[in-house]
Amino acid sequence: MALLKIARMGHPVLLARAAEVSEPTSPEIARLIDDMIETMIDAKGAGLAAPQVHVPLRLFVYRVPAERSAGPEDPPRETQALINPVITPVGEETALAVEGCLSIPGLRGAVPRPARVHYAGVDREGRPVEGEATGFLAVVLQHEYDHLDGVLYPMRMQDFTRFAFEDEMQRYGIAGPVQQEPAR
């Protein structure tokens, strides 16, 4: 396994739509997933999309650490891969979550997103995966899925007074935790 270089905001790979993975169970994809997991864990991330490591393919890895889970509907999750995902909102409710990104180091911002999503795709063995997610998992899935379409979280922000360096945000309480918002 190897640590991969993470593309930073400004690199064109982060602004393009990624291609479908034609052979999800190929040895090359298995190696990429292993390297992405190692890179994500080394960088202390909760998710990492293939375009973030300069590979324009529709796959990402993710996890929900115990300290980020929000109870029975959002339990901790071991690291997993989702290949050729499809993410769709469930219902009208939105949530405001403070997000960071390994491609935008040191910054965080408050991003409105659907509070509940349905996800589907295949895992690294090519088996179908699907479910519904809320809380931190829903945020991570949507954030990583955005990377596959060339979208970075600041592009989704509506209030740039809640966009700041991580250490300043913590020091001054600029943005709070995930908050539910009224249905729109």
From TrEMBL:
InterPro entries: Peptide_deformylase, Peptide_deformylase_sf. Its cofactor is Fe(2+). Pfam families: Pep_deformylase. It catalyses: N-terminal N-formyl-L-methionyl-[peptide] + H2O = N-terminal L-methionyl-[peptide] + formate. Fe cation binds at residues 101, 143, 147. Keywords: Hydrolase, Iron, Metal-binding, Protein biosynthesis. Its EC number is 3.5.1.88. The active site is at 144. Binds 1 Fe(2+) ion. Coiled coil: none annotated. It is an enzyme of class 3 (hydrolase). This is Peptide deformylase. It comes from Lichenicoccus roseus. The lineage of its organism: Bacteria, Pseudomonadati, Pseudomonadota, Alphaproteobacteria, Acetobacterales. The gene is def.
